[in-house]
């Protein structure tokens, strides 16, 4: 029985490797298709400049809010074609005051509004409130710690204008602004580079699948209204609305040149709570959309659900099962010398042990190849230092994903048994 379970776990991991290889191939094709250099100082005029409402949800963000709003005010987009709504959401610090101070520093003529909000619903609640008063044809969202690059909005609008009927939204790339702070931020930077440069590009190149991120995206206001807005209180409102857009037959386009620079957690405590919330939120969205694997919804939804199920459930379970059997096996082998009557779960040196080692080597090699391609495609990231961090992070940081996922699953099971939702929005600490 254990041998069979062990083999199934290994086969599952191999299937996930195939998925990774397919995505990697798509990412590499995308990279080679966009190698040309464009002079960003002389960008061509757009066919039109839609009015945009940029929303900045901010809960106790006095440390970073001025940098973000200043970057938004300096966007390379006609100033009379976008408005800025900064929501000081249930704040007990000086977030609102900091934005008002900034407006007085040479921006009094700009369409910048500070709204002190005391409602519920978290970030999704803020976005739904903004949806009611926004004057723009498109809504753009920037988290309080995510300062956009000067041309970010230009590139987002440029992308949706390629096919405005199909492209209901466009999203850009997010980069780590504090990646040199410590070991944790360097590892987060590696993860983000890989996600932005390989996973997002690969899925878009091969399947025209995009995902709304938490920040640095625009979305058609009329389309959002037609699908009922954001899911109030959702832990991952971005994933939830991505599925809603796909169910409506719309595409979320990748604008790979639209970049924003965001601050990442600098402590393990902040990282753990942030990622556990993300994992929990993704679990809830997956469970809600699991039924679409078997109905007549568009194939992109089925593929996305399958991808998430493999990543968060099937693959995680296979890793946990195979590692548990392997380490128990090592422990039993070590005491077998003292107690010969003790038997191993799987015979060391046998075919299954060889399969495990081959499996591990394939995973490690694929990880290194994927990471180095991602780093090489991002200006300034292909360094010896980052390569060394890539090696170390595989055995440390990368394993945290399993721990966080299991913890989120335990929380969900607990809430199911008790009938009470204990998970709340965790405010990521700023530095």
TrEMBL record:
It holds the Pfam family Glyco_tranf_2_3. Its EC number is 2.4.-.-. Keywords: Glycosyltransferase, Membrane, Transferase, Transmembrane, Transmembrane helix. InterPro entries: Nucleotide-diphossugar_trans. Belongs to the glycosyltransferase 2 family. One of its GO terms (molecular function) is glycosyltransferase activity. The chain crosses the membrane at residues 6-32, 305-333, 345-368, 388-410. The lineage of its organism: Bacteria, Bacillati, Bacillota, Bacilli, Lactobacillales. It is an enzyme of class 2 (transferase). It comes from Candidatus Levilactobacillus faecigallinarum. This is Glycosyltransferase.
